[in-house]
């Protein structure tokens, strides 16, 4: 018996990295999972792992930055599963540059995917959760949205935005028994962080009190807590998962 038996969880950006670990982690607790990413054929590895956990996985093409793609995707999930108990807004990108060199396109792309994407998905799923009179939403923010970082003004603004979105939605949706929280990971080993130079990675490690980079499963465990009944009286909160970097 798992904590999420009979529950339907939707994860955006579920093809790899943190999103994959969240989908598989929740499936190991019994959740059936709607897996969304830019292209559904990228999701086969995650779907295989969900099946190995003995749960149902369906894959959907969904560009979170595109309102019609989100609407079509959520409608398909509703048709296939009939409900959504947990939404995890995980899809995100970086396009780093110093402020004075940052192009308007790189600003827009990051804000569109990381922040508008969470708005569009939350709006579409909240309609369903309001009808159900229950639900839990977990947004994947970042410690960079709390403390800022040189070279990431677009990313930090998007992640600060998602934290504010979390708090407002938590207040709006509480009366419908829907909780909304955020996790703020620090440095987690994924393809996103593999792209950073060794020098930057070493500097980051020096600043982590627990003296190791996080694993995607470290984030998935905290998402599981926030999405589950153990956090039934927790809403509008941001939980950092960063080895003690931000206190
Ligand atoms: N890795 C870290 O250290 C770290 C730290 C803090 C926060 N985060 C956040 O965690 C989340 C996942 O990051 P990751 O490290 O696993 O990254 P990743 O690049 O490994 O995975 C991101 C996934 O999102 C998908 N995606 C990108 N654009 C999309 C779109 N428009 N619509 C749907 N899916 C889209 C990608 O295809 C990919 O599967 C992101 O929101 C990221 O900002 C990561």
CATH topology: Rossmann fold
Distance between the termini: 35 Å
Low-confidence stretches: none
Structurally, the number of domains stands at 1
Question: SS-based structural class?
Answer: alpha/beta
Helix content: 40-55%
The number of distinct helices, counting runs of at least 4 residues, comes to 9
Radius of gyration: 17 Å
Number of strands: 7
If strands are numbered along the chain, what order do they take across the biggest sheet? 3-2-1-4-5-6-7
Q: Give the rounded overall mean pLDDT.
A: 98
CATH architecture designation: 3-Layer(aba) Sandwich
Largest sheet: 7 strands, parallel
Which CATH class applies here? Alpha Beta
H and E string: EHEHEHEHEHHEHHHE
Summarize the structure.
Helices cover 46% and strands 15% of the residues. It has nine helices and seven strands; from the N terminus they run E-H-E-H-E-H-E-H-E-H-H-E-H-H-H-E.
Account of the protein in words:
This protein has 247 residues and is an alpha/beta fold. Helix content is 46%, strand content 15%. The chain is built from nine helices and seven strands; from the N terminus they run βαβαβαβαβααβαααβ. The protein has a seven-stranded parallel β-sheet, sandwiched between helices. Strand 1, helix 1 and strand 2 form a beta-alpha-beta unit. Helix 1 runs parallel beside helix 2 and helix 3 runs parallel beside helix 4. The chain is globular. The structure holds nicotinamide-adenine-dinucleotide. The site of nicotinamide-adenine-dinucleotide has 28 residues, from helix 1, helix 4 and helix 7.
């Amino acid at each position: 018996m798992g904590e999420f038996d009979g529950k339907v969880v939707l994860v955006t950006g579920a093809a790899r990295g943190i999103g994959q670990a969240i989908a598989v982690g929740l499936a190991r607790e019994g959740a059936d999972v709607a897996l969304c990413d830019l292209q559904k054929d990228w999701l086969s590895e995650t779907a295989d792992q969900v099946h190995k956990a003995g749960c149902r996985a369906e894959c959907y093409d969904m560009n979170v930055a595109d309102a019609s793609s989100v609407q079509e995707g959520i409608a398909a999930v509703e048709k296939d599963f009939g409900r959504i108990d947990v939404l995890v807004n995980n899809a995100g990108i970086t396009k780093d540059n110093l402020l004075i060199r940052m192009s308007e396109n790189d600003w827009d792309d990051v804000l569109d995917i990381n922040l508008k994407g969470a708005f569009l998905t939350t709006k579409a799923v909240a309609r369903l959760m309001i009808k159900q009179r229950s639900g839990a939403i977990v947004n994947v923010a970042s410690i960079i949205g709390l403390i800022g970082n040189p070279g990431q003004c677009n990313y930090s603004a998007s992640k600060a935005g998602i934290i504010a979105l979390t708090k407002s939605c938590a207040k709006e949706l509480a009366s419908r028994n829907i909780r909304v929280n955020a996790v703020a990971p620090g440095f987690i080993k994924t393809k996103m962080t593999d792209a950073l130079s060794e020098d930057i990675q070493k500097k980051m490690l020096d600043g982590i009190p627990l003296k190791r980079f996080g694993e995607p499963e470290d984030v998935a465990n905290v998402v599981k807590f926030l999405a589950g009944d153990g956090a039934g009286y927790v809403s509008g909160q941001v939980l950092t998962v960063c080895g003690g970097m931000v206190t």
